[in-house]
Amino acid sequence: MARARISDVAQVAGVSTSTVSLVLNGRTQRISPATQDRVREAATTVGYTPNSVARGLRTQRTRTLGLVSDQIATTPFAGRMLAGAQEVAHEHGHLLFLVNTDGDAAVEAEAVQALTGHQVDGLVYAAMWHRVVDAPAGLPAGTVFLDCRPATGGYPAVVPDDRAGGRDATRLLVEAGHRRIAYVDVDEDSPPIASALRHEGYLEVLAEAGIRPDPALHVRYESSAAGGRAAMVELLDLPAERRPTAIFCFNDRMAAGVYVAAHRRGLDIPGDLSVVGYDDQQLVAGELDPPLTTIALPHAQMGRWATEVALGVRKPPEDDQPHLMPCPVVHRDSVGPPPAAAPTPAGDGPGTTP
Questions:
Q1: 131-164 pLDDT tens trace
Q2: What is the Cα–Cα distance from 125 to 68, expressed in whole angstroms?
Q3: What distance in Å separates the CA atoms of residue 121 and residue 131, rounded to the nearest whole number?
């Protein structure tokens, strides 16, 4: 069956081809509403769809957007980044092309070359977690980095404000009255930048509260529920006067492990131990017993921001610094005051310095 042409629409609507072109391209200032309706009805009747290739040649825009990621498409954890990007692309009449590379440099290079060869109107380079990356060769100017930052700068980028998130998590526990607060951190060969930033936020709030940091309360294990269990066992084996009454976990999976270890020791959450997670991971944070208070990673908001910048509908920062997206607190039921019987470490109190 032959493809419907613009002349077919003009014949059915009883107007010129130039009028059809103006209506279908949204340039309707001098065309009556009745004529516009007639043209659109005729286009539907004959099954006309615009030739995107021809329109791209005329406008120098293909109405497409590329997104190259490492593992996002295969993990439900970060899928909200894709959802946010897709929403913006749809709102602005663009088709989103996604290439998931699984971290393969060769696949990544091929994807960048293919998308630029297709002349996409914008490109987003995304990572599974907040980290510093080397910009791949061949990226077009204006490429936006999502949940990562280029090592040498030069591109707009959006990342979660992990330092502020660490502050907010620790402040929740300080404001609940806790003085012995542990940070259950991630232990990996190449720990993500988020690990250090969240720890910095943790230390800043302890300093503000006049709490002496105890090195024994900063423990590192693998980023999993098993790692959280092992961390909690180590912390619970400390002498009573050094044992934490509150835990800030690098992520919600580790917090789930903390719950298991605490319950095995007969501890109630939050009666005996308060816990704050990070990520607000679906099917984890809200399903724990009790539901976990946590810091949400703003995946959808970052996906939207990156896509808006890539399409030119939002301006990036002018100082070549990454945009820091706020990480909201999600209040649930895992934070309470410290147990009344908890001993206070000697020498700890307001005004105490590290």
A1: 899 999 899 989 999 999 999 889 999 999 999 9
A2: 5
A3: 26
- Three-class DSSP category at 263: helix
**What architecture is the 64-155+300-325 domain classified under in CATH?**
3-Layer(aba) Sandwich (3.40)
Sites in the chain below the pLDDT cut of 50? 53-54, 56-59, 346-347, 349-354
Closest among 344, 327, 293 to 177, alpha carbons compared: 344
Q: Give the Cα separation of 190 and 196 in Å (integer).
A: 11
**CB neighbours of 294 closer than 8 A, spacing ≥ 6?**
252, 255, 276, 277, 278, 279, 280, 285, 329, 330, 332
* CATH superfamily ID and name for 163-292: Response regulator (3.40.50.2300)
Are 64-155+300-325 and 163-292 the same fold in CATH?
Answer: yes
Domain boundaries along the sequence of the chain? 6-50, 64-155+300-325, 163-292
Q: Give me 297's structure tokens.
A: 């990673």
Answer whether 0.90 is exceeded by the pTM: no
